[in-house]
């Protein structure tokens, strides 16, 4: 009969097998860790240098350079005719409205009659005074009578002058029954209506003098020193209404409430067909041009309230830089500080990155 192996020899055999097995396992090479994968595919660009114009933006209101108030120079008469309406172009001296002249014509006739009477009396007194002058050397008339003739002559002449003045006053009233335009321009408002009996000084029309408009811009006091007369301004009220103006003057005072001053900008005559008094408009004051570093607007992201850009390093990882932006040129933004020289700025995909991300750059 075959004898069974002892337990001790079996345990040694198992131990020997396990030792060979473990040794084989230890001899096998460890697998390598997988390479990191890029978080995002991006495009990059470097800042480019261009000359950009320096501008200051402001808001303001279009207004008439001067708006004339045309009123009644005579009171208590009925308005019989209105010859213009809002929007009509008028010339200096053109008749705009007419008042009833019946009462004035009656006053003129009365003044003429009084003048004729005064002239007749003056003629008689002058003849008496002439005779007195001829007789005075002979002593036929006394000195008292002589003085009376001369006084009567002077009084009669004064009455003639008074009658002439009264007639001139009535003729002036007759001219005032016609309301005339004081200057060339356009009628901006009308309150006159036929048949109304108006008082002295009642406004009938408003007129934009000389068809001349201006833009009144509100600027903070710290910016007023930059504005000079003769400076060019681009004014825009809508995409279809853009005109060029010239600074006429800067207001000598600043508002105490909001600390702003008014800049008056003359607009060309052609602006009357594009802009209207009372319109809100935005303008840009031009100060020449300077060199600027520009990056695509898409590359600038806002994080934690700061404007920042991602820059791709040599290891294809991105780093976040805080930058200061300035002027805008189309789809480009000026970077005034914070961007390293020759930096590769992330353009497409910048909004989805965080600092330290590995990226893949494509053209």
Layout of secondary structure:
Elements: H1 7-27, E1 40-42, E2 44-45, E3 48-64, E4 67-71, E5 77-82, E6 89-90, E7 95-99, H2 102-135, H3 143-176, E8 178-180, E9 185-190, E10 197-198, E11 203-209, E12 213-220, H4 221-224, E13 232-238, E14 241-250, E15 260-266, E16 280-296, E17 301-303, E18 306-312, E19 318-322, E20 324-329, E21 332-337, E22 345-346, E23 359-361
Parallel strand pairs: 1-23
Antiparallel strand pairs: 2-22, 3-12, 3-16, 4-11, 5-7, 5-10, 6-9, 7-8, 9-11, 12-15, 13-14, 13-16, 14-15, 16-21, 17-18, 18-19, 20-21
Helix pairs in contact: 2-3
List the defining traits of the structure above.
single chain; 363 residues; alpha+beta; conserved putative lor/sdh protein from methanococcus maripaludis s2 fold; Elongation Factor Tu (Ef-tu), domain 3; OB fold (Dihydrolipoamide Acetyltransferase, E2P); six-stranded antiparallel beta barrel; four-stranded antiparallel β-sheet; 4 helices; 23 strands; rod-shaped; disordered N terminus
């Amino acid at each position: 009969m075959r004898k069974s192996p002892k337990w001790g020899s079996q345990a040694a055999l198992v131990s020997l097998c396990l030792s060979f097995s473990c040794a084989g396992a230890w001899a096998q090479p460890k697998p390598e860790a997988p390479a990191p994968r890029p978080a995002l595919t991006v495009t990059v660009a470097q800042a480019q240098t261009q000359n950009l114009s320096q501008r200051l933006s402001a808001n303001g209101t279009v207004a008439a350079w001067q708006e004339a108030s045309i009123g009644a120079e005579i009171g208590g008469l009925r308005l019989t005719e209105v010859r213009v309406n809002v929007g009509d172009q008028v010339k200096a001296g053109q008749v705009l409205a007419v008042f009833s002249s019946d009462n004035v014509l009656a006053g003129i006739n009365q003044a003429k009659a009084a003048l004729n009477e005064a002239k007749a009396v003056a003629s008689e007194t002058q003849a008496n005074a002439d005779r007195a002058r001829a007789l005075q050397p002979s002593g036929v008339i006394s000195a008292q009578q002589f003085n009376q003739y001369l006084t009567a002559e002077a009084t009669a002449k004064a009455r003639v002058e008074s009658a002439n003045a009264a007639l001139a006053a009535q003729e002036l009233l007759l001219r005032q029954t016609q309301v005339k335009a004081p200057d060339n321009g356009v009628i901006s408002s009308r309150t006159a209506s036929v048949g109304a009996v108006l008082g002295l000084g009642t406004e009938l029309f408003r007129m934009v003098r000389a068809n001349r408009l201006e833009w009144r811009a509100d600027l903070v006091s710290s910016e007023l020193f930059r504005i000079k007369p003769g400076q060019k301004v681009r004014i825009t009220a809508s995409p279809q209404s853009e005109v060029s103006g010239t600074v006429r003057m800067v207001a000598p005072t600043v508002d105490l409430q909001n600390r702003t001053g008014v800049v008056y900008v003359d607009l060309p005559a052609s602006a009357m067909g594009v802009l209207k008094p009372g319109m809100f408009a935005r303008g840009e004051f031009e100060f020449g041009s300077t060199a600027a570093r520009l990056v695509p607007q898409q590359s600038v992201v806002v994080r934690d309230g700061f404007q920042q850009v991602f820059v791709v390093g040599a290891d294809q990882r991105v780093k976040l830089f805080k930058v200061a932006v300035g002027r805008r040129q189309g789809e480009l933004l000026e970077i005034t500080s914070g961007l390293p020289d020759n930096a590769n700025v992330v353009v497409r995909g910048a909004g989805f990155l965080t600092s330290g991300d590995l990226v893949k750059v494509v053209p």
